[in-house]
Amino acid sequence: MFLSGKQPFTKKSYLIYKDTQFCYNKSAFLVKQSKRMIFVKI
């Protein structure tokens, strides 16, 4: 990511990073939820 020390971490790449993190957290949350639902069904 930070190959050249002078180049700033651009806003666009930051937003993409935030987006990726959000999607990852959301999917992890959904997995937890679905596991809980399965346990409830059993």
Q: In brief, what are we looking at here?
A:
This protein is an all-alpha fold.
Overall pLDDT level: 76
Low-confidence stretches: none
Q: What is the C-alpha radius of gyration, as a whole number of Å?
A: 17 Å
How much beta, percentage-wise? under 5%
What is the string of SSEs from the N terminus onward? H
Structural class: mainly alpha
Inertia-based shape: rod-shaped
Q: Provide a count of the helices.
A: 1
Largest sheet features: none
> How many structural domains in the coordinates?
1
- Write down how many β-strands occur, each being a DSSP E stretch of 2 or more residues: 0
* CA distance, first residue to last residue: 46 Å
Report the helical percentage.
over 70%
